[in-house]
C-alpha cells in the first residue's frame, strides 16, 4: 500500500477499527447492563486502555510506519490518548451514569468522535517524522 496518503488513511481506518472494536467489546462486556456488572465509567476506562495499547503499536508500525524516537512519540501518543480517553469517559459519565442512557449510547458516540480526533492529532503531532 505504500506511504501515500490514501494508503495511510486506509491503514488508519483498519487499525482504528480494530482498536475501536476492542474498546466496544471490553466496555460492553464489563458494563453493568451488558456484562459483569461494572459501572459504565469503569468499564469505559478498561476498554479504552485495552484499545489504546493496540492502537499505539498498530499506528506506529502499520499506519505511519514510523522509525522516529519511541520516547518522543510515545509521550505525545499518551497525550493524544488522554484527550480521547477523557472524551470517552466524560461521555460515559454524563450520558450513562448521570442521564441513565444505556452504555451503548456513549460508546457509539465515542466510537465516532475519538477516531476522527485521533487521526488529526497522530498525523500532525505524534508521528510527524513519518508523515514528511
From TrEMBL:
Keywords assigned by UniProt, alphabetized: Membrane, Transmembrane, Transmembrane helix
Membrane topology category: Multi-pass membrane protein
Superkingdom to which the source organism belongs: Bacteria
Membrane-spanning parts: 12-30, 36-56, 77-98, 104-122
One Pfam family per UniProt: GtrA_DPMS_TM
Subcellular compartments: Membrane
Entries under InterPro entries matching the protein: GtrA_CellWall_Glycosyl (IPR051401), GtrA_DPMS_TM (IPR007267)
GtrA/DPMS transmembrane domain boundaries: 11-127
Entry keyword annotation includes Hydrolase: no
Family: Belongs to the GtrA family.
Protein name per its UniProtKB record: GtrA family protein
The species this protein was found in: Mesorhizobium montanum
Lineage, opening ranks: Bacteria, Pseudomonadati, Pseudomonadota, Alphaproteobacteria, Hyphomicrobiales
Amino acid at each position: 500500500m505504500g506511504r501515500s496518503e490514501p494508503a495511510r488513511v486506509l491503514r488508519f481506518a483498519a487499525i482504528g477499527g480494530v482498536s475501536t472494536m476492542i474498546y466496544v467489546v471490553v466496555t460492553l462486556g464489563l458494563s453493568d447492563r451488558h456484562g459483569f456488572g461494572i459501572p459504565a465509567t469503569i468499564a469505559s476506562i478498561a476498554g479504552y486502555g485495552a484499545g489504546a495499547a493496540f492502537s499505539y503499536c498498530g499506528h506506529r508500525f502499520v499506519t505511519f510506519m514510523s522509525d522516529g524516537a519511541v520516547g518522543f512519540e510515545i509521550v505525545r501518543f499518551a497525550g493524544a490518548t488522554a484527550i480521547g480517553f477523557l472524551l470517552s469517559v466524560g461521555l460515559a459519565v454524563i450520558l450513562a451514569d448521570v442521564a441513565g442512557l444505556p452504555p451503548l449510547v456513549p460508546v457509539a458516540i465515542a466510537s465516532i468522535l475519538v477516531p476522527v480526533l485521533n487521526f488529526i492529532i497522530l498525523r500532525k503531532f505524534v508521528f510527524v517524522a513519518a508523515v514528511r
